Amino acid sequence: MSSLPLAVRDSSTMLRRNLLHARRYPSLTLNLLLTPIMLLLLFVYVFGDTMSAGIGGGGGPDRSAYIAYLVPGLLLMTIGSTTIGTAVSVSNDMTEGIIARFRTMAIHRPSVLIGHVVGSVLQSVISVVLVGAVAVAIGFRSTDATGLEWLAAFGLLVLFALALTWIAVGMGLISPNAEAASNNAMPLIFLPFISSAFVPVDAMPGWFQPIAEYQPFTPAIETLRGLLLGTEIGHNGWLALAWCLGLAVLGYFWSTAKFNSDPK
Fold first, then answer.
1. Triad 37, 250, 149: Cα angle to 5°
2. Distance CA 19, CA 10 (A)
3. What's the pTM value of the predicted model, to 2 decimals?
4. Whole-angstrom Cα distance, residue 95 to residue 99?
5. Between the CA of residue 85 and those of 38, 63, 105, 165, 215, what are the distances in Å?
6. What is the pLDDT of residues 148-186, one digit of tens each?
7. Contact criterion met (CB below 8 Å) for 132 and 71
């Protein structure tokens, strides 16, 4: 069999393997999915009036406006949360001996990582849809977005999921066990808290604003927010695209190099 059909066949097999694992052991995915949902409900129903009044510049509380502001950031946080499961899954494969078994078989070597990546992206998209459904149920609306903007928003979410997944795969490969993999991947959840997900960057202390502005989540959040709400995107679109492509390329070469050199 030529290399391309072999790669497609083996990658499809590894994808089915990872999807079966996710279906048979859903607890990790559900636990990670609950984090953005609980934060959404917490910030809307507990902090919503106070946060919206502060962001509105003293114009009074407007919970619906804050829901619209909050949801794009939590959708991207959902992706970061889901990819932690990928790091754990990759680490388990590396430490439990299955990779050593795969390496004795006549299979396309990169298919092992491709199966993890494609499976994780699919799980991220499903998780985003579920969190989005909860957001719509509590009042989120995107009436100003055109069909083209919805398509661009979906493309951004998939590209962001792909980028973070490759980084998570690398984190799983360098981790000695599942617990270490989960800890190494925690920045993927922590970074949204120091971005524009919950409050505008302008509302943060001056010394902290560069930290919040020059990180991958903030331009992606502002771009997604602009696409869904019809607000100005500015230079954030290009920054988000650059971050996604840069992280994807970095994660890919890091992961493949580590996978090919790891003797385990």
1. 50
2. 14
3. 0.89
4. 8
5. 18, 32, 26, 10, 22
6. 999 999 999 999 999 999 999 999 999 989 899 989 998
7. yes
